[in-house]
Amino acid sequence: MRTIGFSFLLAFVVGGIICVIGQLIMNIGKLTPGHTLSILVVAGAILDGLNLYEPLINLAGAGATVPITSFGNSLTHGALAEAEKHGWIGVLTGMFEVTSSGISAAIIFGFIAALIFKPKGKVD
Amino acid sequence: MKQQQYNTLKDQITPKIPILINCLKAFVVGGLICSIGQAISFLYMIFFDFTEKTVGNPTVATMVFLAMLLTGFGQYRKLGQFAGAGSAVPVTGFGNAVISAAIEHRSEGLVLGVGGNMFKLAGSVILFGVVSAFFVALIKLILVSVGVASW
């Protein structure tokens, strides 16, 4: 059984490394954050197809579930789980089975925020 | 001025991106955000009956809620200026993109403003996530039916 401190360390290191990969794509590839996030999501989806993302979650916990790569992973995961049960049609129907929380939370909290917060304008 | 001269001049004048420092900032801030996520995961595992397999979903939702507070009070943009990818890559960055767009376009009305612009920035993430998941699942389904791979 891992100690709690060690799982925090693993979450910190793995999550940090994924963010550094994103930073490298942004700085060296000179891409916008939008492009970078899209690339990472696709990478997460492919990694899950190769059965490599699940071990990463087992290893690092939130270090692997909090970065946006886990969004691609859970989309693929839902699609694969349904495809295993129902065949072709499952690829479509299973897509949002696992991953609903991120999107629904973003929509709901985005709506609430639009009602209660005022735009802040430029920071500087 | 010729194109080539222009390019060399541009390279001279554009400030060099401090890649190493940027990566260090991204590592520390991204790592800290994931550690906060880990703490939330532990809370869900201790006080609610989530397991290590299922705890990802409520954690992500809670992180997006925290992103709403930080975005609403104007703090997430400051964090983003400092941390770059460190604050953009975690799911809080996705939440921030949705929520800031929603707040920004509130003045145009709830339907056309908030509803129409909410996914202006984050829509590409959803699009490419869904499309790539579709093709990955399809390819794997074909490989399994042919008998090359297993689930």
From TrEMBL, chain B:
Keyword Transport carried by entry: no
Keywords, in A-Z order: Membrane, Transmembrane, Transmembrane helix
Domain of life (superkingdom): Bacteria
Tagged with keyword Transmembrane: yes
Coiled coil spans: none
Transmembrane annotation, as ranges: 26-47, 59-76, 83-103, 123-149
PANTHER family: STAGE V SPORULATION PROTEIN AC, STAGE V SPORULATION PROTEIN AC-RELATED
Matches recorded under NCBIfam families: spore_V_AC (TIGR02838)
UniProt name for this protein: Stage V sporulation protein AC
Lineage: Bacteria, Bacillati, Bacillota, Bacilli, Bacillales
Gene behind the chain: spoVAC
